[in-house]
Specification:
Helix content: 40-55%
Number of helices: 8
CATH superfamily of the largest domain: YebC, transcriptional regulation domain
CATH class of the largest domain: Alpha Beta
Structural class: alpha+beta
Distance between the termini: 18 Å
Strand content: 15-25%
Order of helices and strands: HHHHEEHEEHEEHEHE
Radius of gyration: 18 Å
Oligomer: single chain
CATH architecture of the largest domain: 2-Layer Sandwich
Largest sheet: 4 strands, antiparallel
Strand order of the largest sheet: 3-1-2-8
Shape: globular
Length: about 240
């Protein structure tokens, strides 16, 4: 399962280099999640997941508060959740999740990013069947046995607990996100290397150097799009 964490880490490293863009995207995501229900994470589970992920990206409190205040007030922007699927070089697979107030613009931008960087868009379902929605937590300072024991004591079921790259990674069903989070909270663990619901591929592929360079340009082009929130793929990057 080490490849899963490597992929997440690579994604986070890429995003960390573009903090202002990432903060703006989190502002939209927090606003949309808050508008779906109450702008209170204790009663709005979707919002709680977004806020936990924002925390691992060090999103400033001011940006979070601004988005929540907008949702509480007169904010009336309407965003649609869109998912696009496609292929990169050598048949690599990509899922693109977006929040948009202009679907025509977004689909055109996503298609252009694929076409200009050696990829192609697929139809709905052409890629997602090869991915699994998964709750992912990464913590430091604990052993696998310690994490396993505290989750067992909390009667929380997870898919796997493994040590990867100096962190203990917990993979669980998406509907167990809050149960896992609460178990950690009760054990005094509130800081995570990663805490999110992700789309993880069932299998990873590696690409020849030239194809990998092209693939990385494609991923960068997609992540640079204003409406794109998340990009998932099945490529294991080589150093």
């Amino acid at each position: 399962m080490g490849r899963k964490w490597n992929n997440i880490k690579e994604k986070k490293a890429s995003k960390d280099a573009n903090t202002s863009r990432i903060y703006a995207k989190f502002g939209v995501e927090i606003y949309v999640a808050a508008k779906k229900g109450e702008p209170d994470p204790e009663s709005n589970r979707a919002l709680k997941v977004v806020l936990e992920r924002a925390k691992t990206y060090n999103v400033p409190k001011a940006i979070i508060d601004r988005a929540l205040e907008k949702a509480r007030g007169s904010g009336d922007e309407n965003y649609e959740e869109m998912r696009y699927e496609g292929f990169g070089p050598n048949g690599s697979m990509i899922i693109v999740d977006a929040l948009t107030n202009n679907v025509n613009r977004t689909v055109a931008d996503v298609r252009s990013a694929f076409n200009k960087n050696g990829g192609s868009m697929g139809v709905s379902g052409s890629v997602s069947y090869m991915f699994e929605e998964t709750a992912v937590f990464g913590i430091e300072g604990k052993s696998v046995d310690e994490v396993m024991e505290l989750l067992l004591e909390a009667d929380v079921d997870v898919r796997d607990i493994v040590e990867e790259e100096g962190s203990v990674m917990v993979y669980a069903e998406p509907d167990q996100f809050h149960a896992v989070q609460e178990a950690f909270k009760q054990a005094g663990i509130t800081e995570f290397v990663v805490a999110e619901i992700s789309m993880l591929p069932q299998n990873y592929v590696t690409l020849p150097d030239e194809a990998q360079a092209q693939f990385e340009k494609l991923i960068d082009a997609l992540e640079d799009l204003e409406d794109v929130q998340q990009v998932y793929h099945n490529v294991e990057f080589k150093d």
